Every structure is written in structure tokens, then in C-alpha cells.
Amino acid sequence: MLDTRRGKEQMNVLLLEGIHESAVKNFKVAGFKNIEISKNAMPEDELAKKIKEVDVLGIRSHTQVPERVLNSANNLLVVGCFCIGTNQVDLNAAMNRGVPVFNGPYSNTRSVAEMVLGEIIMLLRGVPEKNAKAHQGVWVKGASNSYEVRHKKLGIVGYGNIGTQLSYMAESVGMHVYFYDILPKLPHGNAMSVPSLKKLLAECDVITLHVPETPETRNMIGEEQIAAMKPGSILINAARGSVVDINALASALKRGHLAGAAIDVFPDEPKSDNEAFTSPLQQFDNVILTPHIGGNTREAQEHIGEEVSEKLVNFVSYGSTMLAVNFPQVSLFSPPGLHRVLHIHKNIPGVLSAINNVFSENHVNIAGQYLQTNTDIGYVVTDVEKDYSIGALEKLRNAPGTIRMRVIS
Ligand code: NAI
Predict the structure, then answer these.
(1) CA of 160 to the centre of ligand 1 (A)
(2) Which of 91, 229, 378, 385, CA to CA, is 20 to 30 A from 133?
(3) Are 253 and 121 in a shared domain?
(4) Count of structural domains within the chain
């Protein structure tokens, strides 16, 4: 159990895997002095030793943080995944130790949307095929199968962050945008919602997928759905490899039912640049294949550095857990008046009244209190108007179900 009044200048920040310097800048501006950075991921055994002295840990997707590593942490307050995925961290184990985990889900939205728009333009123009022929010394100058994007119908499946960003950009080049989402979504610009996937597939010249990986989206575009697409239309998948049945797509391309495709994500992706990549789509010149780079730009990396470090700084400075992936969400963005007590406990009856009894018995006036719970834990933040005795602190620490406690002064 942690009980600390250590200031940020005494805390140790460890940033692995070449996290962008925008994060380092944010930590320095916030008052952190001890920031260690490494370009590489850290093997589990090494991290288990290193983490003993770490207060704030920043990783990307290659460093694993299982329960065993968390068990070795003495001071760990918070973990930042400077990427989208968080399954490299044992989220439940972190939560049960009072450690919120944050990620950066929105920083590469623009990068994905830009790449998809570029692919739509290139595919409607037949450029991938003409490019492949030109590389082989073949001159194909005709205008057949070459179209402008203006007035073409774009069908977006999944109208979330990327879908809506793309919606604006596609309209700006004159496309008519339609979308299908399982949730009711406010149409942006002139975009129009379509009541079923089937209708969207049948209506549009280009279908682009921007749904998450869920049991419902697994193979949501298979043989039947591809057959329902307009002859000569185009399919783009920059969502997740599991969403499209790649063999069904290959056979539709072979039959000439689709005019082309752009695929950025695959059911089986190489683990590193050293592993070979194979796909049944490699035989088609009218298919753009990219190695899961939709969100990989310098700008996205910089934004992720800013976005995640800001969340970590806000947690350490104010106790805010907004947008944590494994924690009750308390939104606090102002410094405490005098003292802020952060108390993380098991979600069992009677904890809040036990905490408030301690304050009341010690004549400590509560200026503000914020409580959120999930099924497992509770997080209560209390701003108090005056300092309390060590005895009061001791009693708070002994409140039933306490996981950890921290004081920000
Ligand atoms: P988001 O969560 O903002 O939007 C997803 C949308 O899909 C939501 O509106 C949701 O209601 C909708 N949806 C969920 N299940 C659906 C279903 N069965 N049918 C129709 N709609 C459904 O997500 P965001 O940020 O827009 O990302 C979308 C996808 O892009 C994700 O799969 C993400 O993993 C992927 N992605 C790929 C990248 C790349 O490098 N290629 C980079 C970033 C994200």
C-alpha cells in the first residue's frame, strides 16, 4: 500500500520504446526531473527489476507488463501505453493495485483518414494497376476504368472517430457520403445514415471499414457481403484484419466483381519487419497492400506523446482518471486548494462513511469530494481545507478495503 507525499521532482519516469520527445517535454514542463528514456522495449525480467523504483511508466506495444512485473513495483502510480492497444498490460492486476492505465486512441485518426482518402482517389483512377504495368515497361494510357471521385458514393462502415474524419474529407473532394453504424450517430456535413449494411453495400461505389474488432465484426465482410457490393466497386479495410474474409475478397477480385481494394490490416500480420509477409492478395495489381501503417506518421507519434503524457501528468498532479482504460473515471483538472487525498479501495459497503468519519473525528473540513466506482474498486478524491494529523492519515489508511492512498498538497 502506498502512502506518499513525494513531489514530482522526486518521482522517476521511465519511458521506453522511443516514445516521442513531445512526452518528455510535457513531463519537464509539469515539474518532473528524473526522466529516463530508452529507444527499446524492455524484456520482462529486466523490467521486473527496474520497475521497483519507477513512479510513472510509459511503454508502447512491445513491452509486456504482466502481474509478475506489477508485483515488483513499489512506487508505481500510473502506466501510459503510448499507442492504441493496452493488452500488453494486465489491466485487472493494475486496477487491483490502484494503478490506472491510459492510452492514446485518437492521436492517429487523421493519419488513417488521410491514407484512406488517398487510396480512394488512386483506386478510382486505376493508378495501382497502371503503376504496376509501368514498372514492367507496359504503357496503359486509356481512360477506361479511370474515374474522378467527384459525385461518387462513399459508404463508411463504422461512423466513429476515423469514419467521421474521413466523411468531412471525402465531402471536400465532392464525394457523396453514406454511413452505417450499429449505434445512432449524428450525420456530419451532408452525410446520410443508411439503415442496414446490406443497403450501404448495394448503393456505394467505395466501401471503407472503420469498425473495431469485436465478435460482431469478425468476418462481417464475407462472401455474401462482397457479392452484395456493386459490380466494379472498391473495398478498403484499414480497421482490423479479422473484419474481412480475405479469401472471399481474393475470389471476388479474381472474378472481376470488384475493381480494386486497399488493405492495411490482415488476419495474420508479421510480428516484425524481419518476418516475411504473405497474402492471397499479392497476385492482384489493382490492390494496394500496406503493412498496417494507417496510423503511422510522425505527426501521429507526436500527438500520442502529447495525449498520453498529458493524461499521466493530470493523474499525478490532480488525481484525474478521465479516459483511463481500467479505472473509475474522476474528472479533475484543477489543483487542490490545500490538500487532496486520493483513496483507492475495494468496492465494498461502508468505505466512504469510514473515510468521512475519520475527517469528522479529526475536525477536518471537506471542501469537495468526488467518488466513482466500478464493480471491483472505488476511487474517492477528497479536497480538505486544512492539514490533518498523522493519526488521521493512519486511520484513513486503515479504512476497510483500502488498496492505496496518496496525498497531493
Ligand atoms: P471508434 O470507436 O471511434 O469508431 C468505431 C465505430 O464503429 C463506432 O461508431 C461504433 O459504433 C461502430 N461499430 C462498432 N461495431 C459495429 C458494427 N458491428 N457495425 C457497424 N458499426 C460498428 O474507432 P476509430 O478510432 O474510428 O477506429 C476504427 C478502427 O480503426 C478500429 O478498428 C481501430 O482499431 C482501427 N485503426 C486502425 C489503424 C491503422 O493503423 N490501420 C490506426 C487506428 C485505428
Answers:
(1) 6
(2) 229
(3) yes
(4) 3
Same domain, 85 and 168: no
21, 269, 385, 394: the active-site residue: 269
Task: Tell me if 212 CB under 6 Å of ligand 1.
Answer: yes
Same-domain check for residues 373 and 308: no
Same domain? 371 vs 396: yes
The CATH number of the domain holding residue 120 is 3.40.50.720
Q: Compute the distance from residue 265 Cα to the ligand 1 centre, in Å.
A: 13
Cα(160)–Cα(181) distance, integer angstroms: 8
**Does the beta carbon of 221 lie inside 6 Å of ligand 1?**
no
Q: Which amino acid is at 89?
A: V
The CATH number of the domain where 350 resides is what? 3.30.70.260
Do 52 and 185 lie in one domain? The reply is no
Atom of ligand 1 nearest to the CA of 212: 32
The ligand 1 atom nearest the CA atom of 165:
26
Ordered DSSP codes for 78-101: EEEESSS--TTB-HHHHHHTT--E
Same domain, residue pair 103 and 115:
no
Atom nearest to 214 CA in ligand 1 = 15
Whether 292 is a known active-site residue: answer: yes
Atom 2, ligand 1: residue with shortest CA distance: 160
Residue-by-residue pLDDT tens, the chain, 409 positions? 444 567 899 999 999 999 999 999 999 999 999 999 999 989 999 999 999 999 999 999 889 999 999 999 999 999 999 998 898 999 999 999 999 999 998 899 999 999 999 999 999 999 999 999 999 999 999 999 899 999 999 999 999 999 999 999 999 999 999 999 999 999 999 999 999 999 999 999 999 999 998 999 999 999 999 999 999 999 999 999 999 999 999 999 999 999 999 999 999 888 778 899 999 999 999 999 999 999 999 999 999 999 999 999 999 999 999 999 999 999 887 776 678 899 999 999 888 888 888 888 888 888 889 999 999 999 999 988 766 666 777 888 888 899 999 988 7
Range of the domain at 388: 328-409
Is-contact 155 180, C-beta < 8 A? yes
Q: What is the DSSP string of 193-260?
A: E-S-HHHHHHH-SEEEE-----TTTTT-BSHHHHHHSPTTEEEEE-S-GGGB-HHHHHHHHHHT-EEE
3-state DSSP call for residue 372? strand
The residue whose C-alpha atom lies closest to atom 31 belonging to ligand 1 is 212
Q: Which residue has the CA at smallest separation from atom 8 of ligand 1?
A: 160
